[in-house]
Design a protein that fits this description.
Blueprint (H helix, E strand, L loop, with lengths): L10 E3 L7 E4 L4 H15 L5 H15 L4 H13 L7 H17 L3 H25 E5 L15 H4 L4 H15 L3 H6 L17
Antiparallel strand pairs: 1-2, 2-3
Helix pairs in contact: 1-5, 2-3, 2-4, 2-5, 3-4, 5-7
C-alpha cells in the first residue's frame, strides 16, 4: 500500500496478487460526516465497551443462574486484565467468558448490542468505499463510475470481498489521519484490531 503523502492527495491501493489498483481519496469534512451518518443509519449506533460490559452483567442477572456470583467473579477477573499476553491462564479465562457470553446472548437487549457492533464493523469498509473510491484499473472489474458522488453498490459488489475490505479500511484510515501522522506514515493495516467486533471480552 502506498505512503500517505497528504490528506488531500489520491492514494493507490494495490491488493497483493490481485493485479488490480484502486485509487482512493481522503474525504472532505462533509464527506466524512455523511459517511459516518450513513454507517449509523445502516448499522445502528455502535455500543462502547463499558455499555457492553454493563449490559452483559444485567443480562446475567436477568437470567439469574444458580451460580450467578461465580459468573460475575469470572467477569470481574476478565475485565481487570490489561495485558493481553497469550498464556494458558488467560486462554482458560477467555473460554469461560465465551460460555458466559453465549448465555447472555439469550437476552435480547445484549444480543442486539453485540449484533449492532458486528454490523458496524463489517459495513464500515463498504460504506467507506462508496465515498472514497475514485477509480480502479486492472482485470475483472467493470468500468468505474460514481453516481451523485458515490460508487453504486452494484459496482462495489463486483470487487472481491477481501479487496473491498482492504480498500474500504484504507479509505476509513485516510479520512482520519492526523496532521502529525501524514508526515511520516504508511496506510495502516486494513483490518485493525480495534475494529474487531468482539462482544465485550
Amino acid at each position: 500500500m502506498s505512503v500517505i503523502i497528504s490528506r488531500r492527495d489520491p492514494i493507490e491501493v494495490a491488493p497483493e496478487g490481485s493485479g488490480r489498483v484502486y485509487t482512493i481519496a481522503p474525504l472532505t469534512f462533509r464527506e466524512r460526516a455523511a459517511m459516518k451518518a450513513e454507517l449509523v443509519r445502516e448499522a445502528g449506533q455502535p455500543a462502547f465497551r463499558e455499555q457492553l460490559l454493563a449490559t452483559r452483567r444485567a443480562a446475567l442477572q436477568e437470567l439469574a443462574p444458580d451460580n450467578l456470583a461465580e459468573l460475575l467473579a469470572v467477569l470481574d477477573e476478565a475485565e481487570s486484565i490489561t495485558d493481553a499476553t497469550d498464556m494458558p491462564e488467560t486462554r482458560a479465562l477467555a473460554a469461560q467468558v465465551s460460555v458466559i457470553d453465549a448465555a447472555a446472548m439469550q437476552v435480547p437487549t445484549y444480543a442486539e448490542l453485540v449484533a449492532r457492533n458486528y454490523r458496524s464493523v463489517y459495513l464500515t469498509p463498504l460504506v467507506a468505499a462508496r465515498y472514497g473510491l475514485r477509480d480502479w484499473r486492472g482485470d475483472g472489474v467493470p468500468a468505474f463510475r460514481r453516481v451523485r458522488g458515490l460508487v453504486p453498490d452494484e459496482l462495489l459488489d463486483a470487487i472481491p470481498p477481501t479487496e473491498l475490505e482492504e480498500v474500504g479500511w484504507a479509505v476509513w484510515h485516510a479520512a482520519h489521519v492526523s496532521v502529525v501522522q501524514e508526515k511520516n506514515s504508511v496506510a495502516p493495516s486494513p483490518l485493525p484490531e480495534s475494529q474487531t467486533p468482539t462482544p465485550a471480552g
